[in-house]
Amino acid sequence: MTKELFSTSEVAKILGISRVAVFKKIKSGEIKAVRAGRNFVVHRKDLPVILGKVLTEDKKREIASAVKRVVREYGETLKLLGQE
Asked: Which part of the chain is the Helix-turn-helix domain (predicted)?
């Protein structure tokens, strides 16, 4: 049977950070968690997002914006490098 919910301690071990850091990320919204009594739990489906293995729509927009900015600022240089 596969585990569906992870405690803050388990998430901290997976991410290699402290429990306090996990709580801060939950409070800031970086980690999606649900309150279970006095504790928080993280659903299995949210782990790939936390680990950065899945691109969220916000991340996709951020990447697209960065690419546009680079092309706008360094477009000519990129063209010259492409010709070499």
From this structure: 5-47
- Domains in the chain: how many in total? 2
Q: Supply the pLDDT for residue 45.
A: 86
Identify whether the C-beta of residue 5 lies closer than 8 Å to the C-beta of residue 41. Answer: yes
As separate numbers, helices (DSSP H) first and strands (DSSP E) second, the chain gives: 4, 3
**Whether 7 and 21 share a structural domain:** yes
Q: How are beta strands 34-36 and 39-43 bridged, if at all? A: antiparallel
Q: Is the pTM value of this prediction over 0.85? A: no
Q: What is d(CA 1, CA 61) in angstroms, rounded to the nearest whole number?
A: 37
On whether both 41 and 4 belong to a single domain, the answer is yes
